[in-house]
Amino acid sequence: MKNAPGATGALSDQLVGRSGTNVAPLHGALWLVRHGFPVFPCDHPASPRCTGLHKTCDGSRGKHPAVAFTRAWTLDERKVHETFARGLRNPAVAVGACSGPNGTRLLVIDSDRPGAIEDVAAAHGETWPTTMRVLTAKGHHDYFWYPSTLQLGNGLGALQGEFDGDVRAGNAYVIGPGALHASGALYELADAERPPVLAPSWLLDALATQPTFTARRKSWWDASHPKGYDRARGLVAFVLDSPRGTRNNRLFWAACRAAEDARNGRQDAQDALLQAALDAGLDEREARATIRSAYNRMGATA
Q: Containing domain of residue 223, as a range?
């Protein structure tokens, strides 16, 4: 990860810790590009309307890409200044475009609560390594490098049902330091001088292992779910068990059935289907578009 002149010091100080400082998104974007992370703009929750590239906002303000992030990212500081001077935008990292030492790729572990991934490591008899960490509204993002020979995506692999969070690799993105969450929390670096380290082998082995069908179903359903979820249970299981090459088609079919249920006043399973699609390895933007298309076709609102 490169360290250009000016990448440390005052700029880094503004991005560290829970100081409560109103960190400008521009500062976060500049820190990222100066350290070799491809940046693009996302919607900002304080802007009057959602600026994401979608027809209908799902209400999750501050996280929607404002550009086609797989090709509109940049490492150019001049372009960053131009982009973030146009209006309020959150900085985000194009994960799949990032290249580390010796051709390694970027992997981000997104814990939905503090210590979530540390608990998983302990359960496996491992110690969670110290690496680049971005503090989020609910937990933290841990950045790692992994060999380009591995094919990783957004699926949790064998950690399905164990980990309270998500994984981002390949054609994916994460919100970066300097961004503002809809809750008012800032995304901040835990330590601006700490770069990503190589992902531990036990973690990579787990992520590369296909979860069993039973484990995937267990992660979604338990005795606390009402009877109205019986049909949704089957739709989610159908998506989770999708072989490669069929995932998008199976998601579309399941979303059509969920839209029928929602239109007829039954339990709406679209949120569960979205998470199932991500766990099955689909890109979030693609999955959302597929679900939205299915709901539109069935005359329901996604």
A: 213-297
Residue 250 DSSP code: H
pLDDT, tens digit, 9 for 90 and up, residues 142-159 = 999 999 999 888 888 888
Instruction: Tell whether 185 is covered by a domain.
Output: yes
Residue 85 buriedness (CB in 10 A; 0-12 / 13-18 / 19+): exposed
Q: Which of 207, 226, 246 is the C-terminal boundary of a domain?
A: 207
Is the pTM higher than 0.85?
Answer: no
| CB 59 within 8 Å of CB 86 | no
Over residues 202-220, the pLDDT tens digits come to 999 999 887 654 444 444 4
Query: Do residues 52 and 42 make contact, with C-beta atoms less than 8 angstroms apart?
Result: yes
Say how far apart CA 177 and CA 29 lie, in whole Å. Answer: 8
- Residue 162: both structure tokens together: 């164990």
Of the residues 207, 222, 237, which one is the last residue of a structural domain? 207
If asked whether residues 151 and 272 sit together in one domain, one would say: no
**What token pair was written down for 9?**
């010091």
Judgement on whether residues 180 and 283 belong to the same structural domain of the protein: no
Domain presence at residue 302: no
C-beta separation of 33 from 77 below 8 A: yes
Q: What tokens appear for 234 in the block? A: 């089957």
Q: Among residues 140, 239, 254, which one has the least CA distance to residue 188?
A: 140
> Cα separation of 178 and 14, whole Å?
9
DSSP state of 169: E
